[in-house]
Design a protein that fits this description.
This protein has a domain of about 80 residues: Glutaredoxin (3-Layer(aba) Sandwich), CATH 3.40.30.10. Helices cover about 30% and strands about 25% of the residues. The chain contains 4 helices and 7 strands, in the order E-E-E-H-E-H-E-H-E-E-H. The chain is globular, with a radius of gyration of 14 Å. About 30% of the residues are buried.
Length: about 150
């Protein structure tokens, strides 16, 4: 089977720039010292739509005020306007980051969504998953809690 995951567990997470919800340009390296969950999704992807409510309830709402944690929900091949409309239509509170040209996604993977990459405070990838499965998501939630308890 062809390897589709480029960012491997144990490696430094590939750095990238993005426009933060406050409109400022940021890069992943600015978040060093925090535990970062990167989620790649698309508005048309069925498994992504199943996962997003869990991400909002079990991760975003739980950790949104935790200074040691950052959640980046990245819309692969989506423009900011599309994501804003999607967020409003679906009633999400999560912030979405646009990756219209796949410039961020292409550093992490070649295909398949949804995908999660958990990055520890040292900037290393410590977890990755493809698709949405309850047992994977439970494992991810536990890992986040363990990392933040350090």
């Amino acid at each position: 089977m062809k390897q589709t995951t480029l960012a491997k567990i144990g490696q430094q997470a590939p750095d990238f720039d993005f426009i933060a919800p406050n409109g400022k340009k940021q890069s992943l390296s600015d978040l060093k010292g925090k535990v970062v969950l990167i989620n790649f999704f698309a508005t048309w992807c069925g498994p992504c739509l199943k996962e997003l409510p869990h991400l909002q309830k079990d991760v975003f709402e739980k950790y949104q005020n935790n200074e040691k944690f950052e959640l980046l929900v990245i819309g692969r091949e989506h423009k900011p306007e599309e994501l804003a409309k999607f967020k409003q239509q679906k009633g999400f509170k999560l912030d979405f980051t646009a990756d219209a040209g796949r410039s961020i996604y292409s550093k992490y993977a070649t295909q398949f969504i949804p995908r999660n990459f958990l990055i520890d405070a040292d900037g290393k990838v410590i977890y990755s998953s493809i698709g949405f499965k309850d047992e994977d998501f439970k494992k991810l939630k536990q890992l986040i809690a363990d990392q933040l308890a350090k």
